[in-house]
Amino acid sequence: MKNKEELLHDQSSRRIENETYQYFTRDIYVTIGEQLLMKDFHFCDINEKKLLIDSELKNYIATKICQVSAVESFSQESIDQTNVINLLGILEEYIPKEQQDTVFSQFTHYLLYVAGDLQSHSIDWWIEEDKDLIDNPLITFDDTSRWDTLKTHMDSNPVNTFNHVYTVFQDSFMIDYTKNLHIEKINNN
To answer: pLDDT tens, 33-90?
Structure first.
């Protein structure tokens, strides 16, 4: 049985750890943004932009894996040969379950921000009570084909949510919103 002093130390250690995870991925906007600026991101077409975002997400995730694991570094070749979803799966293994929402929702927020910026229309993320959304997030497009919303459930897995958003971003965003990825077009009448 732990004494009061040990319990207080454990609680304070957890609080520091929680604060660390709270800020662990908040640098995603600045870190990736700086890299995109250095690569003249704003002068690229949409396909080049998607490739650059993909590349910088992989580099960012690899850096985060190194911060929480025994892996010291990844070669650029190994980063280039994997994909964002696989790297995020590796990072997921190192993040405590109770911190995953805090850490991985930042990835989704970042990608929604980037997509909103690219289409000059912000994307709303709604938490709904519909239990069907737990494993199947819903993405809607408005009548002008702009990505309008992401709807998830409070119990949705944050990594799966990001993977869904990432897949839509890479495969359908500003290309074709009719693919069967639980995407719905809405009419704003």
So the answer is: 999 999 999 999 999 999 999 999 999 999 999 888 877 888 888 888 899 999 999 9
Structural domain span for residue 112: 4-185
CB 31 within 8 A of CB 60: yes
Taking the C-alpha atoms of residue 101 and residue 83, their distance in angstroms, rounded to an integer, is 21
pLDDT, tens digit, for every residue of 58-73? 999 999 998 888 778 8
Report the C-alpha gap between 54 and 150 in whole angstroms. Answer: 20
Token reading at 19? 């604060």
**63: its two tokens:** 């850096």
Could you give the CA distance from residue 159 to residue 165 in angstroms, rounded to a whole number? 10
- The tally of domains found in the chain comes to 1
pTM of full prediction above 0.90: no
Residue 161 corresponds to which amino acid?
A: T
